[in-house]
Amino acid sequence: MEYTVIKKRTNKQQHIKNVVKVTETARTFKFILEHGEVWEFHKSKYEFYSLEVEELTEEKKKIAEMVANNALKFREDMRRKILPPKEKLVEILNQFFSMEDTDAYWLTRAKSAFAVGTVTIDDFKEFTDETINELADFIINEIIK
User: Fold this and answer.
1) What pTM did the predictor assign?
2) Domain boundary residue among 14, 34, 51?
């Protein structure tokens, strides 16, 4: 058996392997190791947890793989349900950027140029269908990361 002992104040962990027997008194835990060594820890200062080491059988490996695959499939299904198709997203973005009497532009220079006073009308580009498509691609890629 293997145990992890954790010191309460510092959360420092110590792993104890090859434990044959654990005895517990009102105040202490005693670990007797394979080679006869005895380790003693006071309950007021330490907590301990057992870690049973068990080999995975082929059947358990298949089950673990199946669970992982199902979780991945579920995640992909949820993404499809949450995300609108790209065409719908492009339509929504076009509606947003095509408000009455409003055009959308993007600044092609650093914003700090405003403080210097060197920004001109030539530093802006109007949103195009290509810009909207790039924006839709960006949003979809960021969501499905």
Assistant:
1) 0.39
2) 51
Q: Output the average pLDDT for the chain.
A: 77
Angle at 142 between CA 140 and CA 144, to 5 degrees: 70
- Please report the pLDDT score of residue 97 as a whole number: 80
| Rg of the chain in Å (alpha carbons) | 31
The reply to whether 122 falls in a domain is yes
Edge-to-edge, what's the strand order for the sheet holding 2-7?
A: 13-16, 2-7, 46-51
User: Does the structure show a pLDDT above 80 at 57?
Assistant: no
Nearest to 19 by CA among 38, 4, 32, 36: 32
The counts of H helices and E strands in the chain are 4, 8
Integer Cα distance of 34 and 21 in angstroms: 9
Which range of residues forms the domain containing residue 21? 2-51
- Tell me, what's the pLDDT at 139? 85
